[in-house]
Amino acid sequence: MKNINWNEVPDQVEFDRLIPGGYVCEMKCVVDMPAKEYLKIEYDIAEGTHKGYYQELYKSKSFWGGTFYRSYKEKALPMFKGFLTAVKESNPGFVFENQEKRLEGKLVGLVLAEEEYMGNDGKVKKRLYVSAVRSVEKIRKGDFNMPELKKYQPAGSKDGFYPVDDSLSDDDVPF
To answer: What CA–CA distances, in Å, run from 62 to 8, 65, 143?
Structure first.
């Protein structure tokens, strides 16, 4: 093993996981992806006990966990307009003018819900995702719906189970 001065290595920082709920957030970085017609939006918690959560996570783990996407494809325009409305209601005087960089530094209310997913280690895990965008006033008042946990469903499964293939005989099964 190489020689390491352990006195110079910072201690591991523990993080409380964010819980599902409504958060007032600041959009930190907005990048247009014109070929796919969406905005990639990095955000951080702007108020409350978890203020700066993703910045601290990044300092500790070199990972930015607060990201969501907003499509501006033709069929998604009503949802994108809803997003812009929430931003306008949260930032009086804000004018978008189709310039994504104007969103940076603006506040918005985000409802973070949980979903299950299959991890690289083959285990079902949980993560937060942005389930809804609201005005900061609605988040502060608790005026939003909290979705249930999205359960992991393997591809091709129904209610977590694969349909039985009755066309196979016992001779076709390799074990």
So the answer is: 18, 10, 34
d(CA 122, CA 127): 15
Of 40, 133, 135, nearest in space to 92 by CA: 135
From CA 66, how far away is CA 57, in angstroms rounded?
A: 10
DSSP state of 62: S
Inter-CA distances, 45 with 25, 84, 106, 174, Å: 4, 19, 12, 52
CA angle, 141 then 112 then 131, to 5° = 100
Could you tell me the pLDDT band of residue 5, with boundaries at 50, 70 and 90?
Answer: confident
Tokens representing residue 147 in the block: 């979705």
87-141 pLDDT per residue, tens: 999 999 999 999 999 999 999 999 999 999 999 999 999 999 999 999 999 999 9
H or E stretch at 90: helix 77-90
How far is it, in rounded angstroms, from Cα 64 to Cα 47? 18
The DSSP letter of residue 93 is: T
